[in-house]
């Protein structure tokens, strides 16, 4: 059974999640692990930690982060839906969409709207109501799009 958890540093699973996230082949996993291991975690920041509880050691299925700043680039925009990842064995099942929805729901519960995403993808997040508000270079000197979504009717 796939389980979605919204976790903070106070959760028992936090350090286990950080290690599993850091072990994925995508470089953002290591960046998120480093953030999770730091002491200056904002009290409202969250990790969406998705596991398959029917597998040995609860396989990491996916993760995403709700952060003050995205690790890719410093910007005046905040907060961010960041670093959405799905294990290749679980792709094409709508899990990334569910991770984004979970982050958006969490943001709204915490009183945040709008939210932002940094991405190089075109069309993916627009399907969820995001619109481009800027473009810049990320820390790897790649062109990155800044997208925004209002979570409430404004």
Question: Which keywords apply here?
Answer:
three-stranded antiparallel sheet, alpha+beta, four-stranded antiparallel sheet, 154 residues, 7 strands, globular
Blueprint of the fold:
Blueprint: E1 2-7, H1 14-22, H2 27-36, E2 46-52, E3 59-67, E4 80-86, H3 95-109, E5 115-119, E6 131-137, E7 143-149
Antiparallel strand pairs: 1-2, 2-3, 3-4, 5-7, 6-7
Largest beta-sheet details: 4 strands, antiparallel
Based on secondary structure, the structural category is alpha+beta
Residues in helices, as a percent range: 10-25%
Order of secondary-structure elements: EHHEEEHEEE
Kindly provide the radius of gyration, computed on alpha-carbon positions and rounded to a whole number of angstroms.
Answer: 15 Å
**How many helical elements?**
3
What number is the mean pLDDT?
92
Percentage of β-strand residues: 25-35%
Distance between the termini: 37 Å
The count of strands amounts to 7
Shape call: globular
Strand order of the largest sheet: 1-2-3-4
Unreliable runs: none
Summary, kept brief:
With 154 residues, the chain is of the alpha+beta class. The chain has three helices and seven strands. The strands form two sheets. A four-stranded antiparallel sheet has the order 1-2-3-4, sandwiched between helices.
What does this structure look like?
With about 150 residues, this protein is α+β, with helices and mostly antiparallel strands. About 20% of the residues lie in helices and about 30% in strands. It has a 4-stranded antiparallel sheet, sandwiched between helices. Strands 5-7-6 form a 3-stranded antiparallel sheet, with no helix packed on it. The mean pLDDT is about 90.
């Amino acid at each position: 059974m796939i389980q979605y958890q919204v976790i903070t540093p106070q959760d028992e699973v936090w350090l286990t999640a950080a290690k599993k996230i850091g072990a994925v082949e995508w470089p953002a996993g290591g960046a998120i692990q480093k953030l999770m291991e730091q002491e200056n975690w904002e009290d409202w920041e969250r990790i969406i930690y998705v596991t398959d509880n029917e597998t040995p050691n609860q396989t990491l299925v996916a993760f995403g982060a709700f952060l003050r700043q995205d690790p890719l680039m410093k910007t005046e925009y905040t907060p961010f839906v960041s670093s959405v990842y799905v294990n290749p064995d679980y792709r094409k099942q709508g899990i990334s969409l569910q991770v984004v929805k979970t982050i958006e729901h969490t943001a709204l519960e915490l009183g945040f709207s709008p939210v932002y995403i940094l991405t190089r993808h075109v069309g993916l997040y627009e399907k969820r109501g995001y619109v481009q508000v800027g473009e810049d270079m990320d820390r790897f000197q790649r062109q990155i799009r800044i997208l925004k979504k209002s979570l409430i009717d404004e």
